[in-house]
Amino acid sequence: MGTPKIEIRLGPEDEYMHPGPEPTFNESMYFNVYDPAERVGGFVRIGNRPNEGHAEVTTCIYLPDGRVAFMYSRPEISDNEQFSAGGASFEVIEPFESLRVEYSGKVVVLEDPLEMADPRAAFTSNPYEHATVSLDYSGASKPWGGEPQGVKERSGEEFAKGHYEQLVKASGTIAVGDLEYTVDGRGLRDHSWGPRTWQAPWYYRWLTVNMRDGSGLMLSRVARKDSDGIRQGFVWTGTELLHVNSVSMSTRWTGEDRYHAEVHATFTTEHPGGRPVERELTGEVLNLIPLRNRREGRTTRISEGMTRWTLSAPLSQDDPDSDDRSGPADDGGIDPALEGFGLSEYLDQIVEGAPVGIRE
Questions:
Q1: Calpha distance 57→86 (Å, rounded)
Q2: Is the per-residue pLDDT at 4 higher than 70?
Q3: Total-model pTM
Q4: Where do the structural domains in the chain lie, given as residue ranges?
Q5: Do the beta carbons of residue 304 and residue 289 sit within 8 Å?
Q6: Of 110, 34, 104, whose CA–CA distance to 65 is shortest?
Q7: Which fold has domain 24-148+156-196?
């Protein structure tokens, strides 16, 4: 007998808020962006934890000179009526088509983003500036994911009952102190809800990729302590959303604290005719900031790497072994179907001072 197909529900109403009686209920939205012309990018996240009485608000801006402007706060909230806390707000204008992201508040500006491995020292020894983010996001692909029906996560490993992602375009402004950038870039957004603790996965790797020709993909590898876990993702060809059937990843690490410096992934999708199509993805981390979460005596590290991606063959190409290309190279001689940008997010539980996923 084959594996039963899981029904996944997703509708326009899921762009809004959900009920959550669980003690660790979290509802979050996340938006990232990168503009290769301005060489500026970053992400904003709001995670509501109404039953714990606070939100988690993160703003991270990668500046062209290698500095990172960053802020994390846990403002008090009393309900889950909206995404608006800590100077950040998200507005759904039209589900899956148009959303607005705003942030106004202080940020710490890090000459060396790796200093955030010790948040207390980083926040006390670096200068602050006022930052504003005002971005209009529009859907660049169909959304992928939703809420599986009739499926319950294992106790202690709850991370998101419902979860969907979407490639997006973003335009607007990002300002840090006296620096202001007019942004016209691409990125990825996600929305999740349900019980969540950052200590639930043993480790994960989350790769978000926007190619310069408008195609893109997401690859996810979530490891469990007692099993291989989950390997999945999606590909957007520019016209069609394809499910990723298999993913393997390897990492080149750097430094005593072992941060990811280069990522290599091999993944397959189904050709419309049913034949598996395999491609390779290589990521060079341009800048990285390590974030930390502590809960009940456990420490979790979440390393956020702004990454330049290179594909072995265009996503819009049915046969990766073909020499055809989907578009002309730009003035710099780079095929826009083979180069892209995005985030590589590595979450690891830290045990005896080391990330548990170091072998992958």
A1: 6
A2: no
A3: 0.94
A4: 24-148+156-196, 199-360
A5: yes
A6: 110
A7: AttH-like fold (2.40.370)
